[in-house]
Amino acid sequence: MGAYILRRLLLIIPTLFGIMVINFALVQFVPGGPIEQIIAEINGEGGVTDRITGGAGGDVGQSGDVDYQGARGLPADFIAELEAQYGLDKPPLERFFNMMWDYMRFDFGESYQRSISVVDLVLEKMPVSISLGLWSTMIAYLISIPLGIRKAVRDGSRFDTWTSGIIIVAYAIPGFLFAIMLLVLFAGGSYFQIFPARGLTSANFDQLSLVGKVLDYFWHIALPVTATTIASFATLTLLTKNSFLDEIRKQYVMTARAKGLGERQVLYGHVFRNAMLIIIAGFPGLFLSVFFAGSLIIETIFSLDGLGLLGFQAAVGRDYPVVFGTLFFFGLVGLIVGILSDLMYVLVDPRIDFESRNT
């Protein structure tokens, strides 16, 4: 197992390098950039697209090649000073390798927009995204696995039919639409004012007791976590049911029953371990998808200042240190989580041996 883990760890380097190369190359063809943002702010101009004059790459590319709209009247040395300040006066290839060298030392630089380190900025936003990702994934597993097992055991029954209908409806509702519906119904929209409509904590959070802080925290995250959980809950329930159904129909289950073992012994002593392999394999992907993919819309609707909103604002504002720094860090986290998924395979079923596979 040690050799397999070592190979996977070594594969992280070219994989992560490839991710950064592709994204850095794509940025070279995106109009606009931090220099244009600053010039537009100085001139009081509008959106990013209105400030673009053409020329793919904008100020992401080389110094002196870009005609910044609104730059007329600004001294050329001032523009050159800005480019030097942000490191945009160097060729793209040199900037890329300088960036990667810094990232390998976990030096992610400072945000263009807020003038604080990218690490501090991410740590500032992390609690919101962790709250959504962790609780949503945990609740999805705690509900979906028992429900999926029960549906498999009672396959074809009225319970299975009715719950399948509810699950399909839940899966069909887009997360953002469900979030809006929760706001309208329970956050003072048109009906009930039960939960707060925004934020992770109340304004008087620091004055509350420990128990009060815990209750206030869960009171605030109840609606966003519910909205985030709905789609993953539906998918995971059906996945659990199908996995258990597939195992229940295998020969070894019939043999165990023929030996006189009870249904619970067969289900949890034999079927559970094999059926749970695919569920465990999907845990990293589910967590990361909830943590990143679904966070932007939910954070926006519930006014939560997390990583999803941070990434969106950084992309729109061409805050490249934040864009590439978070891409590098969370890409690395995703690859490591993939290795942990394989280790969980072995933990659940020691018969699995990745060493014997040519991967």
UniProtKB/TrEMBL annotation:
PROSITE patterns hit by this protein: ABC_TM1 (PS50928)
The entry's keywords: Cell inner membrane, Cell membrane, Membrane, Transmembrane, Transmembrane helix, Transport
ABC transmembrane type-1 domain boundaries: 126-345
This protein's GO CC annotations: plasma membrane
Segments traversing the membrane: 9-30, 128-149, 161-186, 217-240, 277-302, 322-348
Topological relation to the membrane, as annotated: Multi-pass membrane protein
Cell location: Cell inner membrane; Cell membrane
NCBIfam families: PRK15133.1
Similarity comment text for this entry: Belongs to the binding-protein-dependent transport system permease family.
Name by which UniProt lists this protein: Microcin C ABC transporter permease YejB
